[in-house]
């Protein structure tokens, strides 16, 4: 109204014409709020509201605009996208570049029709910048992994060239299997300890030099893969993973296996080849998991028994 009657009439005509064309172009109109009228145009397929000053997108956009195939929200001041954007199941093109977005909701991973996504020039934290820099298809793959993971409990992000791991996008209590193998991750965040229902954790072939002690909170974990990293030590609290059955850390730089592994009474597989282990001695290490754990048990009990019977270990 501030722009005059002529502007209002033009806007009304655009809305009316869209009922036939199924397209609305409201770019460069100075909108500070999302034009709610467009959500009530039956069968609207294309909406261009780029280059305005909008700060928010209404939650109702998803349920009301399921026919939308092309949405351009670029160059606004949008702080967040609502989770209901994931309800735009017909969407093939989404442009949100040049806003103030810190996250892209993982619910967008359920839009299987989406083929083009432009998210550049946002202060994004999740997906991480290393994913964003690889383009829209990489972002889509990332979001779809999180959507499937949050729905099924199996979160697979292997072979994504990830440098960091934004676990805040996951519904932690739902995830039972996490595979981030074959990436370039250097730091595993402490938040990994919040995945209390995790049973399988695969971190193989990354660049990890340390595993956070928070991993001790994963009391249901039965498989832990650490092969092909840069570890020099196992976590000091690893003995608290009492459900652990399989522990593998092939091809690292570990020289000492903690004797507290003897507390892992369910452990049946211990993979340590290609590490230059000196404790326990190589003669014991090559005899397999059972002998290694027995050795650890003897060493643990030695201060109390004042003996260390190592007979039968082929030293």
Strand and helix map with partners:
Blueprint: H1 5-21, E1 23-25, E2 46-48, H2 61-64, E3 70-72, E4 93-95, E5 116-118, H3 129-132, H4 136-152, E6 154-156, E7 177-179, E8 200-202, E9 223-225, E10 246-248, E11 269-271, H5 282-285, H6 289-305
Parallel strand pairs: 1-2, 2-3, 3-4, 4-5, 6-7, 7-8, 8-9, 9-10, 10-11
Question: What does this protein look like?
Answer:
With 315 residues, this protein is of the alpha/beta class. Helices cover 20% and strands 10% of the residues. Strands 6-7-8-9-10-11 form a six-stranded parallel sheet. A five-stranded parallel sheet has the order 1-2-3-4-5. Helix 2 links the parallel strand 2 and strand 3. The radius of gyration is 27 Å and the shape is elongated. The N and C termini lie far apart (91 Å). 35% of the residues are buried.
